[in-house]
Amino acid sequence: MPSIAVTPHEENGNVSDLTAQGIKHALQKTAPSQLKSASLSDSTTQVHSANHQHDAPTPLAELDASLLQTTYTTSPRPVPALGSPEMASQKVCTDHMIQARWTSSTGWDAPTLQPYGPLSLMPTASCLHYATECFEGMKLYRGYDGKLRLFRPQLNCARMLMSTSRIALPGFPPEELLKLIVRLCATDGAKWLPKDRPGSFLYIRPTMIASDPALGVQRPTEALLFVILTCFAPMDALDGGMRLLASKDDMVRAWPGGFGYAKVGANYGPSLVAQGEARALGYHQILWLFGEECFVTEAGASNFFVVWRTREGVMQIVTACLTERIVLDGVTRRSVLELARERFAIGYEGLEAVEVVERKFSMAEVVEAVEEGRLIEAFAAGTAWFVAPVGHIHFRGKDFKVPMGENGQSGRYTAVVKEWLRGIMWGTNGQESHEWGHIVDEK
Q1: Tally of domains in the chain
Q2: Strands 148-151 and 398-401: what pairing?
Q3: Which of 58, 104, 281, 355 reaches 20 to 30 Å from 215, CA-CA?
Q4: Among residues 392, 389, 387, 386, which one has the least CA distance to residue 366?
Q5: In DSSP terms, which residues pair with 134 in a beta bridge?
Q6: Residue 28 pLDDT class (50, 70, 90 cuts)
């Protein structure tokens, strides 16, 4: 599977698309190294070069982790006990954070590692009015072998560049962001994920906001990148599986030509009303559908998978495709697909071989599979929820029970995929040296 793209897909080679051109122009100004490395067609590159060979702007300072300035806290924060309300609150952060400021006149300032604390913004800041904000979700894991690990962090950093470019925020070299994340994890990891807590994790939230104090609707001229580490309780242990409420006709999360493929704040705020109502009714997440055909897209903020047998008798793992750029190219999603294609191709420990399919599929197909006894199991996958089996879906006034395996807690394919990923993230089951596990050397 190809790496996460920097620039949006251009159908039929159309290089006049305003969004695509705007992203290229922004990268040329703010992170020319990324424009050079972006995956562009030859024709696009030629047109772009021809249009700008006489007016190439002077490159601004790019983000450079080697310039990091460090100030350690003099007021260390207490580490919450496992299972405590503080741990579950999602409000407790570690002792330090990363910050880096950008302006349109000078580029990136030297980044800082500094004590965790509040940000200073003017009331007219662009992010407070125009949703010029994006973020990533990652985790730092304390392995059972005593090591700290990140899971495929280069994919998150590449996706964040795509997201910032989509909403007129400055570009940056993803490898420099990764270096800053690693430095923060190395600084706070030993204290906040002690070696006597194997199997625990911290949530990592890299974020960029437009801090431009001008109220006008325009490209921001100032931005702030910051990275924090937050205590987070596991979310995947659900008795009876995840309960999903399928969205109705008046509820749309993303649409073709929009920005559903980017991890921007504007994707999440408008969904919170429906999400709150769903939880009040006893559901964990909204199963987001799209169009009159009720195509299945995502489960809350996670990718959604079904395991079913076709009418022809073929066992499949199916998830929504990325072609219309409605669905987020999740790192966990990508990893599930790659592992399933590699390890389920000829069956696995008594499990039948599986065909892995990425395509548009509708709720009508899911309902038919349930009614005909062909639905084997379903699960959601993402950084926050990890791999969570789905046990119940409510759609158009009807309840559909999703099989949960012999133990009533998880289907077998779901459990195996989850165990594979756990092994890589926490260094177990012979996966201590897997290439997806990025070791963090502790300070």
Answers
A1: 3
A2: unpaired
A3: 58
A4: 392
A5: 208, 264
A6: confident
Structure tokens at 8: 């949006």
In degrees, rounded to 5, the angle at the alpha carbon of residue 131 between the alpha carbons of residues 274 and 20 is: 110
Q: Under a CB-based contact definition with an 8 Å cutoff, are residues 263 and 296 in contact?
A: no
- Phi first, then psi, for residue 69 (nearest 5°) are -105, 135
Which residues, in sequence order, are CB contacts of 162 under 8 Å at separation 6+? 4, 5, 6, 7, 8, 261, 262
Helices (H) and strands (E) in the chain, counts: 11, 19
Helix, coil or strand: residue 318: strand
Distance of CA 59 to the CA centre of its chain: 30
CATH number at residue 308: 3.20.10.10
305 DSSP β-pair partners: 319, 379
Residues 25 and 46 in one domain: yes
Does residue 3 carry a pLDDT above 60?
no
Burial of 179-201, coded b for 16+ CB within 10 Å and e otherwise, reads: bbbbbbbebbbeebbeeeebebb
Under DSSP, the state recorded for 90 is S
Same domain, 19 and 78: no
Q: Write phi, then psi, for 195 (nearest 5 degrees).
A: -65, -15
| Same domain flag for 107 and 222 | yes
Query: Rounded to an integer, what distance in angstroms lies between the CA atom of residue 3 and that of residue 37?
Result: 12
Residue 46 host element (H or E): helix 42-52
Report the distance separating Cα 398 and Cα 335, nearest Å. 33
What's the rounded Cα separation, in Å, for the pair 224 and 96? 16
Q: What is the pLDDT of residue 49?
A: 36
pLDDT in tens, 286-334: 999 999 999 999 999 999 999 999 999 999 999 999 999 999 999 999 9
pLDDT digits (tens, 9 = 90+) for 201-232: 999 999 999 999 999 899 999 999 999 999 99
| Backbone phi and psi for residue 143, each to the nearest 5 degrees, phi listed first | -75, 160
Q: How confident is the model at residue 58, as a pLDDT?
A: 64
Rounded to a whole number, what is the largest CA-CA distance in the chain?
A: 68
Nearest alpha carbon to residue 90 among 323, 384, 315, 442: 384
